[in-house]
Design a protein that fits this description.
This protein has helices at 2-25, 43-65. By secondary structure, it is mainly α.
Length: 77
């Protein structure tokens, strides 16, 4: 289950970073929505969507992707 969560977080982070970079570098006059998504109408919306995916992936990884520290009950290392 933890592997699936990490994979989903990785996908969200990658999509978010890609949308964020594309939205900041594209010229607004020549904007074309990535993958022809009809609901992304401007570079500003692309940056906002990319930021949301990036933060969502990071939160998913932080909340569910890490293992808690294993404590040794006998004090041995």
């Amino acid at each position: 289950m933890r592997t699936l969560v990490r994979l989903l977080a990785l996908i969200l982070i990658a999509i978010g970073a890609g949308l964020l970079v594309y939205g900041t570098t594209v010229d607004p006059a020549q904007f074309r929505a990535p993958l022809n998504f009809a609901w992304l109408l401007s570079p500003t919306e692309t940056v906002a969507m990319g930021t949301g995916f990036l933060v969502g992936g990071l939160l998913l990884l932080a909340m569910f992707g890490f293992r808690p520290a294993q404590s040794d009950p006998f004090g041995k290392s």
